[in-house]
Task: inverse folding
């Protein structure tokens, strides 16, 4: 563990190496209420990046919802492969989370901000539509000091997606 960053996990009172935080997890399908319970543990400033789908929204869209074995990250997939409600309560899980979503059929998504755009581009998605920040759609708890007014992106998976 030489030169490895350590994070103290208050819940388990142990130090967690970066490699363990970023490792791939097993995912399972869950009911909307169980998914929302975990998703809504995000700080409001990060929850603002997600469309606030209700359990009824997920059911109407026939969204399949997945949570990691530790319940710290998850995502939803609509029947047509739209990736929604991607979240993680832990840093550095993004690439593994997106890889799992791809393995389960993710084909398109929308996101806000350059950092998320880059994460998805690295996984093989390509921007199909880009729009400047629109104040009319600003989330209630948007943190302007921290995130500014980022662009909105609609993305599709390239046929030759990266592994």
Result:
């Amino acid at each position: 563990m030489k030169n490895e960053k350590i994070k103290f996990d208050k819940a388990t009172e142990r130090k967690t190496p970066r490699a363990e935080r970023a490792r791939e997890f097993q995912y399972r399908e869950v009911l909307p209420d169980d998914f929302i319970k975990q998703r809504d543990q995000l700080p409001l400033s990060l929850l603002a990046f997600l469309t606030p789908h209700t359990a009824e929204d997920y059911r109407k869209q026939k969204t399949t919802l997945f949570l990691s074995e530790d319940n710290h990250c998850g995502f939803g997939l609509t029947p047509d492969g739209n990736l929604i409600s991607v979240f993680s309560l832990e840093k550095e899980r993004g690439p593994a989370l997106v890889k799992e979503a791809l393995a389960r059929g993710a084909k398109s998504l929308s996101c806000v901000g350059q950092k998320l755009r880059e994460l998805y581009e690295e996984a093989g998605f390509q921007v199909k539509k880009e729009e400047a920040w629109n104040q009319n759609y600003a989330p209630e708890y948007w943190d302007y000091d921290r995130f500014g007014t980022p662009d909105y992106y609609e993305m599709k998976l390239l046929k030759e997606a990266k592994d």
Summary: Residues 23-157 form a domain with the Aminopeptidase fold (CATH 3.40.630.30). The radius of gyration is 16 Å.
